[in-house]
Specification:
The protein is built from six helices and three strands, in the order αααβααββα. By secondary structure, the chain is of the alpha+beta class. The radius of gyration is 13 Å and the shape is globular. GO terms for molecular function: DNA binding; DNA-binding transcription factor activity.
């Protein structure tokens, strides 16, 4: 677990919001055609953010590099899910400060 990368990822409010959305994908992305068990399609996240696709991709890459999300490629689409184990380990580490 790269604590510095996680802090960097969480420093941005949009990245925190994306993580919040991914916590309850059925609530925030009800129109996704493929099952949410794959995760949330990057295109769905792009649409919800309301900013350029390249900027959203950079935010998702930062979350992925920090280990806060996992990715799964299905055909031409990339799906994102929270990595709950990493998030919990990070939360636990905060108690040790």
């Amino acid at each position: 677990m790269d604590i510095d990368a996680i802090h960097k990822a969480l420093a941005n409010p949009l990245r925190r919001e994306i993580l919040e959305w991914l916590k309850e994908p059925e609530r925030h992305f009800p129109s996704q055609e493929l099952p949410l068990s794959h995760g949330v399609c990057a295109g769905q996240i792009d649409g919800r953010c309301g900013i350029s696709q390249s900027t959203v991709s950079a935010h998702l890459a930062t979350l992925h590099k920090a280990g806060l999300v996992t990715t799964k490629r299905v055909g031409q689409w990339v799906f994102f899910k929270r990595d709950e184990a990493v998030i919990q380990a990070f939360r636990d580490s905060l108690g040790n400060l």
